Amino acid sequence: MRNAITDCSGCGFQDEKVIKCLKRSPRAFRRVFPDKIAPNIALLRTSGVSDVLISSLVSNVPDSAFRRHSKFRSIVNQVRDMGFDPSKVVFVEAIRVLSGMSSLTWERKFKAYSKYGWSKDQTLLAFKKFPPCLSVSEEKIFKIMDFFVHKMGLMAVDIATKPTVMVFSLEKRIIPRCSVVQSLYSKGLLKKELSIASILHPTEKTFLEKYVTKFPKDATWLLHLYTGEVKIFDV
Questions:
Q1: Burial annotation 99-124 (CB, 10 A radius, 16+ → b, else e)
Q2: Given CA atoms 193, 158, 176, 205 in this order, what sign does their dihedral have?
Q3: What does 106-145 look like in DSSP terms, one character per residue?
Q4: Which residues of 147-186 are buried (b: 16+ CB within 10 A; e: fewer)?
Q5: d(CA 20, CA 205)
Q6: Taking every pair of C-alpha atoms in the chain, what is the biggest distance, in angstroms?
Q7: Which tens digit of pLDDT belongs to each residue from 27-43?
């Protein structure tokens, strides 16, 4: 194994990083490292992907980079044909997502979003903005979209423009935060209409400061909603 790691020096990675990525993918230990990874790295480089992004892909998602070269080349070409910029992190994110699903699964994800009104073009645009929105399971897509559309009354198109919200936990983040904000609206404490992204993106500390402790008279009630001790959504 030591020889295989040393032979990878031409790929542009230090032994420490190679070992790290191999430990993340036990199957990689059973493969001939240079033969598997070198052609794929070369393809990424000729496609305009920086060494920083290549290193990120290999270190964090080694299974994607260790794919058979013909399959890897097909995925890279697909991502490039979709219009992804190889100098951006979303390029390797798209490779990661597509590496983890079959064409049948890809179509099923599109169908899941279409159930809530996303057109094929809207789903593709959402994927181009934030590839992980299509790595979400179909069950999670149904649950989150159902909550946004039927419980929060959001328009499907609004969610499509902010696809990052699809990766959050429904139970741990979406429902608690939406419960707090919904209560603030009902009490007239919030006048400005907030986007779903502005509710879900802030850190927990920032969210609590802006929407809980900022309202001392209602802070206890809001905290009960946030922790789930009191529920206002029937889900």
A1: beeeeeeeeebbebbeebebeeebbe
A2: negative
A3: HHHHHHHHHTTT--HHHHHHHHHH-GGGGTS-HHHHHHHH
A4: bbbebeebebeebbebbebbebebeebbbbbbbbbbbbee
A5: 32
A6: 68
A7: 554 554 556 788 999 99
The answer to whether 62 and 22 are in contact (CB under 8 A) is yes
Confidence of residue 47 (pLDDT cuts 50, 70, 90): very high
Given CA atoms 58, 74, 125, 182 in this order, what sign does their dihedral have? Answer: negative
Are 180 and 229 in contact, with CB atoms under 8 Å apart? no
DSSP 47: T
User: Which H or E element spans position 222?
Assistant: helix 219-227
Complete DSSP assignment for 165-197:
GGGS-IIIIIHHHHHHHHHHHHTT---SPPPHH
Q: pTM of the entire structure? A: 0.83
- Nearest Cα to 136, choosing from 171, 161, 114, 112? 112
Helix and strand numbers (H, E) in the chain are: 15, 0
CB within 8 Å of 230: residues ≥ 6 apart: 221, 224
CA distance 207 to 194: 13
